[in-house]
Design goal:
The complex is a heterodimer. By secondary structure, chain A is mainly α. Helices cover 68% and strands 1% of the residues of chain A. In chain A, strands 1-2 form a two-stranded antiparallel ribbon. Chain B has a domain of 230 residues. Chain B contains 16 helices and no strands. Classes of the chains: A mainly alpha, B mainly alpha. Chains A and B meet through helix 3, helix 4, helix 10 and helix 12 of A and helix 1, helix 5, helix 6, helix 13 and helix 15 of B.
């Protein structure tokens, strides 16, 4: 029974840590499927987390925080869009630039406005997302096996957690069952065909980039308003890159993205759990190996040893109309 | 790909446009300073004073510049072949192993000029090794070098934490670092060079690896513009299909270029490890690999541009410390913003002002042509 509870606890924290990854990876899905590569997921998430933490602390309202997060993240996306779509600059260089600008300015502005060493003030009450207890969660707690799964694993998460998981089928529906989604995917594979059909490649790519901004805003807000009570400097800690890895690992498909994020989240949860505890049969596994595992797995996958990850064909190439 | 922009005179292409981009980046940075409630001009004064006000400050500026010359060259070499190596950070980190091993092995028995060449070879070899896999994977398995090098940065960070906490750390010591090297593992400072200019180096760690960096810059120039390999690299960077048509082995060039790039990044480790700390510490690279991206973009991937760009960033690092001291609300993270802005304006938005400048030049050209005609008539 004790073993069962340990598993439940690990899975529960798996869900908690994979939520920002799911948001960010879905964000990347929208732009990359439209042919705009985005290394800047990390920066947008960090900027959003800061905006959310700062605004929620000042207004005391969690929804204002969320809106600020989305706003900042969309603005950063538009900078990326302007550089890579309108100015036809290198998408990778632009993403790298955004990551640095955000990493520096969140610290500088946070310190100037709140003077708490790059943090925003701790949030409580209405300024922070509260966990939701699903109906009957307490009643069924004592039911063997299914009870703990329902009341501990599925119940008691933040609203954003449920939103993240609901966004997975929703993104699938948007991308594969709507006209917008069809065009978005087409513009990532063959933009000139879309252009020939009389649809603006530029505007379509801008809309994809805005979708990415909104989702990254949710990812950042989750970090500073739900997972922790406030913004801490550098709090994304590479999650944007892990999300990018998950996106590639999932071969740019929504459901696979959820599974990849859960896998990477599980590795993360497990590495925290295993700190100091030896694993049966294998013995002591260095924590560092567990931490590096998502990256190692992605490299192996990219090398084509676990299936082949084929990116959208027009990805990374700015579209030049006149020719 | 056809260039949709008008051709500009060389001095505008390599002088004016980078300068305008740089100025815009600094203006935006100035806005951030304003937003924090400080005076940007004061900040600029403190920075320049902090970077060049005294011999010691200049020593620090050039010490940082040394590091950035290596990482800037590393990124630039890859740029020439059309590859974007974001992994200089990780390659420099791993390169540190080579330096540390050479020093730990011989520092007690040999003088520095014996250890130094071995450390150079070690650092370059370890850095190149760390870049080999991403290069090989790009060449043979088609996995994008940008993504793999990012992943390798993280893997390097984990690996180094493991090595420094479990393997390279002396017994009975808490801090995750190697032991302090004896005299053989310490590079001499460049007092004599500074005293030529009548400057006193003070406590600054400006050391021999600066000369190595200049040598490396010259080497890169020779490689890219005076050798067959360099020609093949540039061909591949300009037009992969032309390179293929000319029978240039794409896979071979990719792997070699990545290894050269990684080797240059690895050599960066000499400067902090043998030149300042005299031991290998956790996270000694401190983002220098990423600064290399900004330096390479600003220097237009040419050694003659990279050296001044590296000095500029050295100035930002050293002067930034001075600003942080004088104006507590502006910490050294300001440099990270400037670095990002330079990457944005000199890299991703490099064409933003080009049409306007092109038009201006076209206008001048037409007017002078008209003037010449009327004179002739």
């Amino acid at each position: 029974m004790d073993f069962f509870h340990t598993i439940i606890a690990i899975l529960e924290s798996t869900i908690r840590v994979s939520v920002p990854l799911i948001f960010a990876a879905l964000a990347g899905l929208f732009t990359e499927r439209a042919g705009v590569f985005d290394i800047g997921l990390e920066g947008k998430m960090l900027g959003a987390a800061f905006a959310a933490g700062a605004v929620a602390a000042v207004t005391g309202n969690v929804m204002m925080g969320l809106m600020a997060a989305v706003l900042i993240s969309v603005l950063l996306s538009l900078v990326h869009g302007y550089a890579s779509i309108t100015q036809r600059g290198s998408q990778i260089v632009s993403g790298v630039a955004i990551n640095f600008i955000v990493a520096g300015s969140t610290v500088i502005l946070g310190e100037a406005w709140f003077r708490q060493g790059g943090r925003t003030p701790a949030l409580s009450g209405d300024a922070r997302f509260q966990t939701i207890t699903l109906p009957f969660a307490d009643a069924v707690r004592d039911v063997p096996f299914l009870g703990p799964i329902y009341s501990e694993l599925l119940s008691g998460h933040f609203i954003l957690t449920y939103v993240a998981f609901a966004l997975v089928p929703f993104s699938w529906w948007v991308l594969y069952r709507t006209r917008f989604g069809l065009r978005l995917r087409a513009v990532g594979e063959n933009p000139s065909a879309v252009d020939t059909a009389g649809i603006s490649v530029i505007w379509l790519r801008y809309r994809a980039v805005i979708c990415c901004g909104i989702l990254c805003g949710f990812a950042g807000a989750y970090l500073s308003l739900a997972m922790s009570a406030g913004f801490v400097k550098g709090m994304t800690a590479g999650k944007g890159y892990i999300a990018l890895a998950a996106l590639i690992f999932a071969k740019w498909r929504p459901v696979n993205i959820m599974l990849a994020c859960l896998l990477f989240g599980f590795l993360d949860a497990l590495s925290i759990r295993l700190q100091g505890n030896p694993l049966p049969l294998i013995g002591q596994v260095p924590v560092q190996l567990m931490q590096a595992l998502p990256y190692i797995l992605t490299v192996i996958l990219l090398a084509g040893f676990i299936g082949k990850a084929i990116p959208p064909k027009a990805g990374g190439v700015p579209y030049v109309k006149e020719r | 790909m056809s260039n949709p922009y008008a051709k500009l005179p060389a001095w505008a292409e390599y002088g004016l446009i980078p300068l305008i981009n740089l100025v815009v980046a600094f203006l935006v940075a100035g806005l951030v300073v304003l937003l924090v409630g400080e005076n940007p001009l004061n900040a600029a004064y403190h920075m320049i004073n902090g970077a060049f006000g005294r011999g010691e400050y200049i020593g620090f500026t050039l010490y940082y510049a040394t590091t950035f010359i290596f990482t800037g060259l590393s990124v630039a070499v890859a740029f020439h072949a059309g590859l974007f190596n974001i992994g200089s950070e990780g390659q420099a980190y791993i390169g540190g192993i080579g330096v540390a091993l050479a020093c730990l092995w011989l520092d007690k028995t040999m003088p520095w000029f014996v250890v130094f060449p071995l450390a150079i070879i070690g650092s370059a070899a370890f850095g190149a090794m760390w870049a080999f896999l991403p290069g090989w994977l790009q060449a043979k398995r088609g996995s994008h070098v940008v993504i793999t090098t990012i992943m390798f940065n993280f893997i390097a960070a984990s690996l180094m934490v493991y090595l420094l906490t479990r393997v390279l750390k002396p017994l009975g010591q808490m801090a995750p670092q190697t032991r302090t090297f004896e005299a053989g593992g310490q590079l001499p400072k460049l007092d004599w060079l500074m005293s030529i200019f009548g400057l006193n180096l003070g406590n600054s760690p400006f050391n021999v690896s600066f000369l190595l960096a200049l040598l490396a810059a010259f080497g890169v120039w020779v490689l890219i513009w005076r050798t067959k390999l360099g020609y093949e690299m540039r061909t591949m960077g300009h037009s992969p299909s032309a390179a293929r048509y000319a029978g240039i082995g794409e896979a071979r060039i990719t792997v070699i270029v990545m290894m050269i790039s990684g080797g240059l990044a690895g050599m960066m480790a000499l400067n902090p490890i043998m030149g300042e700390q005299y031991r290998m510490q956790l996270d000694f690279v401190q983002g220098a690999g990423f600064v290399g991206i900004a330096v390479a973009l600003m220097g237009r991937s040419h050694p003659a541009g990279i050296i001044p760009a590296a000095v500029l960033f050295g100035m930002l690092y050293q002067g930034g410390a001075e600003i942080a001291f004088e104006m507590p609300s502006i910490s050294r993270d300001m440099i990270v913003i400037i670095q990002g802005l330079v990457i944005l304006f000199a890299g991703a938005l490099e064409n933003m002002f080009r049409p306007a400048i092109g038009r201006a030049f076209a206008g001048i050209g037409r007017r002078s042509a008209v003037a010449a005609q009327t004179r002739g008539a």
